[in-house]
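User: Could you walk me through two proteins back to back? I'd like the raw sequence and the structure tokens for each, with a short line separating them so I can tell where one ends and the next begins.

Assistant: Of course. Protein one, sequence then structure:
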Amino acid sequence: MARAAQARIDLDALRHNCRHIRSLAPNSRLLAMVKADAYGHGLLPISRALADLADGLGVACVPEGLALRAAGIAGRIVVMQGFKNDDELSAASAHALDVVIHEPCQIERLASRTFGPQGGLSVWLKIDTGMHRIGFAPHEVANVTALLAKLPMVDPNLRYLTHFACADEPGSAMTAQQIGCFVRTTQGLVGERSLCNSAGILTHSEAHADWVRPGIMLYGASPLNDTPATSLGLRPVMSLEAPLIAIHTYQAGDSIGYGGTYRCPVPLRVGIVAMGYGDGYPRHAANGTPVAIAGQPGSIVGRVSMDMLAIDLGSVDCRPGDSVTFWGGSVAADLVAAQAQTISYELFCAAGPKAHRSYSTYAA
């Protein structure tokens, strides 16, 4: 059953952001990250809109890659977690998905294969330069490269990648250390390189290398702490909206919502909106978290409920049925995320799939 929340997806803004990223890394290929349902924006519509602008698409898992192939997307698709079992390996090989190799058991599975297309599997080797999540330690890379070179079903043209842990903190020594580690580890190895996520694209142009891997920038939010997306030349892609369902006037001292945690400092016009944590809106959004009512500024008061929340309407001329915008347009998702002590990534991934999504058309 459809709920009232609406996520309006601006594909022109998406394509603008992609072109802007290309201008920042003009000598690199672009692997657009569309994992996690394209950060809540919709895997297939987003991937189709990026297909002619990006050099490849990045997904988290083999099923995501297979969904793109089933939809007719024929370009390069890189599975960032690689394959997890023999069935996924077979599917990746059969559907020409690139796989990231990060774990010895993946090599064991490849070595045990007695069939498969000669040199048909494109492999990216993940190097753990300090993130300590997945990947081979630097001292293992030369040996792993040699092992992969002996496997007949692996394309001999290996690619190497790593992931930054602190690139969202400009000036962090950690990122420079990771870049240095990656350069030393891959010195003398033949193959394309990829280091930079969205934050790295902005802060470490010296590490753009052969491929950049933008994610959150594509969707119009900032990857850098305390740096607004608009100042980075990005446009918001998702606008999350829901209707007003009631308007009341309360007196000074009246409490609003669960726990009575908010008390009106003066007589207050309060709007109730059909939006809550059941729609993916963060329960911990603080009093004062911005919204827009009929294009005018407003803010949340009281605790967010499962299906409803309250907003201070001020003097805005509005009535039940009017739309309230929770992020997008004049309401920055990054600011909402900060008020809820989270990040824009989580906002999009939580709310986007639960809302009714609609998509603008775009000019190719």
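----
Protein two, same layout:
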Amino acid sequence: MKYSLILNLYHYRHYIWRNAWSELRHRYAGTGMGIFWNLLHPLVEIMTYTLVFSLLFSHRTHGIMSYRLYITSGVLTWGVFTSSVQRGSNTFIEHSRYLKQLNLPLEIFVAKIILTFTLILHIYYCLFLLTSTLLGNPLQWKFLLLPIFLILLQVLALGMTLILAHLRVLFPDVKEMLQAFITLWRWTLPVIYPEEVLPESLRRWLFLNPPYVFLRSIRALILEHALPGWQDWLIMGIWIFLLLGCGMIVTHKLQHDVRESL
């Protein structure tokens, strides 16, 4: 039964959490500063974007915040989202030794990767909000809702990754195809350019790009202190339902083939 995926994620929730937290803690094992690199890397990245775009762009967009915060939020969000998908798509091959020895559901290994990057995304945004405040964008109580949007985006990534992880084992070329696709995919979204540069005829169809409404909602909350309307909530819910549902079906249909192919 395909809905057993949700039950498995719930049943192994402590296992998923422990392993995700362990991976985050040991991500830089062997280095002198260890876990603190999880803070220093995003801090350096945020400060680099802020400095570079402060020098390159002096005009203001979106009414209250400069382009440097607009592009930094887009690049950080997109970077973690796509890293989740790419790393997660390879998780069955990466953990093939464990999957051959342990009779554990395949999906919990994907969930562990997604949760790890969800924690990383929250670290990024804690530092980003601090930087944003220093640049004149005051903290708002609405920012307390930010984790909801970050988690919803990563649930979207979970659905996509469940599909890709199974296909990656059965069709090795998926890895190269995914890398090429993600490079092109970024340019179909307003990640590093304002969506106003797109013709109106194209902008009205952006909602057909799964991450778009999630990215727009995150930016609107931080830069404009605005919450999404019911249409945006509906679109996000539809995309999560479709991709997570497809992920459940693919897991149900292909999990035995994947185990035999590992």
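Confidence is low (pLDDT under 50) at residues 60-64.

Let me know if you want the two compared in more detail.
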